[in-house]
Design a protein that fits this description.
L-Lysine epsilon oxidase N-terminal domain-containing protein; 15 strands; 0% helix; LodA_N; mainly beta; three-stranded antiparallel sheet
């Protein structure tokens, strides 16, 4: 079989994992129309499994990635695993980030204004990818054949920021600005060791990406309330007076000073065959 292999690809090309506060996880759907049972008992799963653990915490849904070999005509030869006769070893490389705090202000599906950034007073005038104080970036992590312990990817955010200002019209926890038209002084405390996910291998060295627990927090004092400003807006998105959540730079989904532990990124893999070929 080795002589037929000309290239490899990772499947699925796009994977989706789901957050959960439990340390337990199950592997998400891999076949169209098939509902995965999450394990356990006395639950709504197709085999009686439950999506929550014994403490009622939501289990995480992991994404499994597989490697397929292709021939010169781009036809599938076979799935490659550590159990394949031709495979010597597998090495996965993963780099995920959370750039929410550094990104453009969300203004609806696929929309943004290049002049409106989240947390605009921090590293202003930079492109989102350059605003490193606001990016949770654990760096590149690898996991290879033979590794049995999970690789936990962690990073920091709101680093090296002591003081700043925010609009007084925002709502703060336990604090009401005397003059909402003026900026409010705030202090920042860096968030450390935020887990964005874990890398694991199944019994055949397929990659399992286990997502984060789904945490979020405000790092400012005073804290900014999450309901800014949509709670006081009339449906669906409030009046067209500049405070519309879909155009407001500080609306609840653009709220400054907050982080969460979702992420996205890229995966690649190196397969070494027993004949020495590296793919």
């Amino acid at each position: 079989m080795a002589e037929k292999i000309k290239s490899i690809r990772i499947h699925p090309g796009i994977g989706i994992a789901r957050l959960g506060t439990s340390d337990e996880f199950y592997i998400g759907p891999e076949t169209p129309g098939v509902v995965v049972d999450p394990g356990g008992s006395n639950g709504p799963g197709p085999n009686g499994g439950t999506y929550r653990d014994s403490n009622a915490r939501l289990k995480r849904q992991a994404q499994r990635y597989r490697i397929y070999a292709y021939d010169a005509n781009e036809k599938v030869v076979a799935e490659l695993t550590s159990h394949s006769d031709v495979v010597h070893s597998v090495r996965w490389r993963v780099h995920v980030r959370n750039m929410k705090a550094a990104n453009y202000a969300f203004q609806g599906a696929y929309l943004f204004d290049p002049d409106k950034l989240r947390n605009p007073s921090i590293q202003p005038g930079m492109k989102p990818i350059e605003r490193d104080k606001l990016i949770i970036d654990p760096g590149v992590h690898t996991i290879a054949s033979g590794q049995t312990q999970p690789v936990i990817m962690k990073g920091d955010v709101f680093r090296d920021i002591e003081k700043g200002t925010l609009p007084g019209e925002l709502r703060f926890e336990g604090f009401t600005p005397k003059d909402p038209s003026k900026e409010v002084d705030v202090t920042y405390k860096a968030a450390r060791d935020i887990e964005l996910g874990q890398l694991r291998l199944d019994s055949k060295d397929r990659l399992l990406f286990v997502p984060a627990p789904g945490k979020g927090e405000c790092v400012t004092t005073p804290k900014v309330v999450l309901s800014n400003p949509s709670e006081t807006m009339s449906p669906p998105n409030g009046p067209e007076d500049g405070k519309n959540p879909l155009t407001n730079q500080f609306a609840y989904f653009n709220i400054p000073g907050w982080w969460d532990d979702t992420c996205c990124g890229e995966i690649d893999v190196t397969v070494t065959l027993k004949d020495g070929t590296v793919l």
